[in-house]
Structure formats: structure tokens, C-alpha cells
Amino acid sequence: MPRVVFLLIPRVHLLDVAGPAQVFSTADDLGHPYTLTYLAEDEEVATVQGLTLQAQSAWPPLRPEDLIIVPGWRGPTRPASSQTLRRLREHHASGGTIAGVCAGADALGRAGLLDGRRCTTHHTVQDELARLYPRAQVVKDTLYIEDERIVTSAGVASGIDVALHLVTTRHGPYAAGQVARSMLIHIHRDGKAEQISPLFRRRSHADETVHRLQDLIETRFTERLPLSLLAEATRCSERTVTRLFRRATGLTPLAYQTALRLERAEHLLGTGATAEAAAREVGFEDARTLRRLRARSAAPPDR
After folding, report:
1. Residue 47 pairs with which residues in a beta bridge?
2. Which of 73, 159, 286, 289 is most buried when burial is the number of CB atoms within 10 A of its CB?
3. What are the extents of the domains in the chain?
4. Residues 183-212: pLDDT tens digits?
5. Coil, strand, or helix at residue 38?
6. What is the three-class DSSP state of 146?
7. What is the distance between the alpha carbons of residues 38 and 28, in angstroms, rounded to a whole number?
8. Are the CB atoms for 244 and 205 separated by under 8 Å?
9. Whether this model's pTM surpasses 0.85
10. In what residue span(s) does the HTH araC/xylS-type domain sit (predicted)?
11. Domain 198-298 belongs to what topology?
12. Architecture (CATH level 2) of domain 3-182
């Protein structure tokens, strides 16, 4: 039976532990056996959220099929000891997989496991990770990355996505889908997905008129929403609507609506919908339009 070892660092984030643990526990309930082990250098580990976790301090014997997950924490905290870092290196060298959730990437970096590999972490500390480990290839604004059995992620809720990815790798997409359905997860996000959804990325402004426009677009994004309708809803001129919206979000109302459509279409495609069905459901005329817009959004920006 494969073992999933959670290496707990003091001031660990509770969701970084609980999310992946729930995925593998649910997989076990559904017939894909796993043993979950919580390991730490001290047997009591305080979480940032105030709950104290119990862990064992003795390392179990590990095989290549076993996983080590290093959840993120909030500093300052005592880093992992040289002995613990050696254990991480040894497990990877024997063929094992190690996943760092959020700041867990720092432990992997200290162990030398990020050198020459693509990796990521939470968007607020990506620059710091790149500074600390210049031999790593830090990829910004992506949910998770796997490179030679080293998995890193943005952390918090994305730890669930990483765990589902690992279940998919080991047992196939159907098994991961069963786990996601049991956990009431509406979408299993691909690792290449942006860390911040368009629904939130463009909301860090104080313009109430634009917030009302965004509410309207998000509620009816599959419909045709002419500029005249948006102007009428806010009692502004069409020109004012465009100016305010672009100033607050960096996008036109149409571009914002298109981004929401594409995000929903990606989810539908990821759950097995055809391009034609996904295009129709989100309001595009046909699959050709969806393919063209997806290609455009994936293209690197002009320099």
C-alpha cells in the first residue's frame, strides 16, 4: 500500500495539509489504497490557524511508490534540519516523488531538489524563491508544475489540484474524477491555469460602477451584452462605460466577458465536453471561434 508522508514544518498552513490529505483519504475510500503519515521533527506542530497537529518524529521506511508532501508554512520558522533535507534527497534519488505546497518549495530548494528544474510557488513569494535559488527555473503565475518527480504549487487550495494531479498520474482521470465528485470539487484545474481567476484578478479597484458592471457581466456572460445595455444599466454613456471599465480593469467590457467565457470553456473541455459543445454553452457561435480565441490567449505577448 503506497504511503503519503506529510512533512510538517512549524506554523504550517492547515489547508495545505488538509486539502491533499482529504484527496488521498477519499481515494483510499474509493478503492485506491493509501496510508497517510504525518511526520515532523517535533511531535506537536502548531498551525498558523491555531490548531495543534500531532505527528510522529521517526521516519518510516519509504519505497519509490511512496509520496512525500511538504505543506507550506508562514515564517519566520525553524527550517528543516540537515538530516530531514537529506531524507528528501534520498527519497527522490531512489525514484520517489516529492511535492512542495506553497512555501514547501523552500524546503525542496534547501535540499537542492529545485536546481535546474522548473518550479513555482504562491504568487506573493515567487520573486523571493527565485532570489534564494537562482539555479531553479521559477515559473510565475501557474498553479503547479511537475519536473522529474518534483512537484511544486501555488499553495492553499491549489494543494488539492496537485493531489488530484498525482491521483490522475497514478490511477487515471476517471479515478481523479471520482475523488473530485466525492469532495464536491466543481473543477480540477490544470497546472498551467493562472493562479488568480479573471473573476478576482480584475476586482482590486474601488470603482463601484465598474463592480456593478462586472456583476452583470459575470451573471450573464453567455449572453450577447451590447455596450448600450451596459450603459443603460449604469446610467452612463457608452463612451463612459468603456473608459471607466478600461481604467479600472485594463480591459474593455467585451474582453472581460470573453475571458470569463474562455475560463468556463476550459473547465468544460477538462471534464470531457467537445469543443463544439463547450463553445455553444459559453455563448460562442461555434468551435472555430473558441479555438481561435484559445490560441490567441495562449500566444506570448508581442515584444
Report:
1. 12
2. 159
3. 3-182, 198-298
4. 988 665 565 655 556 566 677 788 999 999
5. strand
6. strand
7. 16
8. no
9. no
10. 211-303
11. Arc Repressor Mutant, subunit A (1.10.10)
12. 3-Layer(aba) Sandwich (3.40)
